[in-house]
Amino acid sequence: MGLDQDQMKQLLVMFRAELDEQTQLITNGLLKLEKGIKDANEKSNLLESIFRAAHNIKGASRGLGIEVIGDIAHHLETIFFKIKNNSIAMTKQLIDLCLNAVDKMPIALKSFTDETPLNFDLNTLLKQLELDQLNESAELSVNPKEVKPVLGSEVKGTDESVRIPINKIDKVFALLEEIQINKIAIDGNNTEMNQLSTKISEFYSLWKQLYDNSKVNKKNDYHDMTTRTYESANDFVINTLHAAQHLQKSMQTQLSSLDILANSLQDEIRMLRLIPASNLLHYLTRYARDLTHELNKEVEVIIHGEDVRMDRLILSGLYDPLIHLIRNAIDHGIESPQIRESIGKPKSGRIKIDVIAEANKIHMMISDDGAGIDIQKIKKVIEEKKFASPTEIEKMTEQEIIDFIFRSGFSTKPIITDVSGRGVGLDVVKANLTDLKGNVSVTTKLGKGTTFVLTVPLTLSSERGLLIKLNDQIYVIPSHAIKSVLITESNNISEVEGSQTVMINDQPIPLRLLSDILSLQTQGLIKKDKLSLVIMEKEWQKIAFVVDEIVGEREIVIKPLKPPLMKIEYIDGGTLLEQNQLALVLNPNDLLNQAYQTRVNQRLVTHEESLHIKSKPHILVVDDSITTRTLEKNILESKNYQVTVAVNGKEAWEILQKQSFSLIVTDVSMPVMDGFTLTEKIKKSDKWHDLPVIIVTSLGSDSEKARGVEVGANAYIVKNEFESGVLLDIVEQLV
Fold it and tell me: What are the chain's domains?
């Protein structure tokens, strides 16, 4: 066959999709046969369909020169023919062998396309498939391995089908995104046109008033030319107004039409990216079957909603979470046949997978009728691993306790096995769902079973974002990363272990200024009466980000930044808003990581605190003696001064960079940095050189006092002469 490279490449794409379809058909058929089919006609039709599938694979693969697949398919074809004609019996051992052979076909195709050696022994496999070897006493080495299904690129219609490479669909979708961006820009132009029309209308009202007044107040000696000039100008203004209104109305009509067309086109293209959930779910049936044999359990997998269509990328992303949940259900949840019979349950366990489409969401419910989750065991692990204290555990609801199974490192499994308990827990399921912009929840009943609900968007191609304002600039945070938004009073702020928190539903949540995280604002005190908060969460910890304003939510198209702006911290890309305004899209993970790692540099104060601060000068007391600095602090606070303390000059200098003070009271002899050095740094600085400094020290020699004058101290108090009245008098003079 004389095919060039491009032709062969296209044929291989088509064959890969066909192989996916035909091998899935064979797998599903074999699993149905294993369960048993009572109706003779149904069984005959099923055998005919898997025989025809093997025959088609053989013909297509040999036509492309992929002899390995052709040989395997030929042997399977022969087996299915013999079973159909009752020449050989269908046994579990034979089904294992056939499934193992089917698994090797995509492996052989990859080896062919990559031009690499096979990773299995073909001769051994074909020998096992020989008819003279197929008897119940034969020792067959079949070890099913976890092979991730290939989610094919076939796009089917109701009447006809056509195979379209996914990358082609992605390119069309990228062009649609450009249309959406231009539509947004046109919408911005329409808004500006509407504003212009309004301004012209307002101008016309003023002009008409002036024009009417001019006619009333016109004297008899006005020339006709002046009148004609007014009338001409009046006609021009009216015509301009009418033209603007007509243009604005026309733009609005066309924009509405474009909006409908673009949305319809977007929906249609999204549909092209969707594939049936069965592409993955049928594989889970096979996986569960192999695993139950390995664990000597009996489990039936029931699937509802397999025809629900969803985004290929979403379905692919659900592979690992679903495999993990199926594995956990069989290993942890479903009891052994002996135990199930002893407690009055059917010998065979049941795992049910329901797929439900709801608006733009897909819900996958994975239920088992096993032992359920033991709440007491979870409590014990929570306490042992110090996830929470016994007092905190007692205050938790049952659902809050159950949700701990999604914590990193959580496991009630006493030993590590090959099947589960390998240090990777349900936190992986939660993390994967978060990456898919979805979520996972769980309900359970001890002795009755457990249900996990995975909720994901219909497609990843659409995105919604929350528009927020910082320093008069619009930013966007992807909506999927946001737990909630709210506006609260600033008097809800409290101090917990040196960090500011805000009380939400009686829970203290760490508070961070988003502008501080992004280094958009100078350090200092920020005065706000009301707080606009965006609540985000990572690894069970919430953070409340303070923003200047919550503008609203809308659908966005995120475009990656181009070089050299590709790797900007905290930024995922950009999106175009109305009036061609570009807004940066923030990366939620980067923001949360930074918020957890560092303390906020800026502080929020309430309106009342602000007034209180203005009425009370802020004094920094610096002394390494806890007794002395506490004494000085108490003396100053007794006269309503606001006081902050530091243990040495270095700490005082660092505090000074973050907060404003009216005066410094410092000792001289301190570790790290003494009081003379601190005073000299303050007086030589451009920002703080006018800040009064009082030195309070036990060093009372003339040379020490001279040193104090030399570095610029405003007052010098010797401690053996020290009394509260002296200090307060000097402070009052200097502030």
Answer: 5-140 (1.20.120.160), 166-273 (1.10.287), 276-457 (3.30.565.10), 463-605 (2.40.50.180), 616-734 (3.40.50.2300)
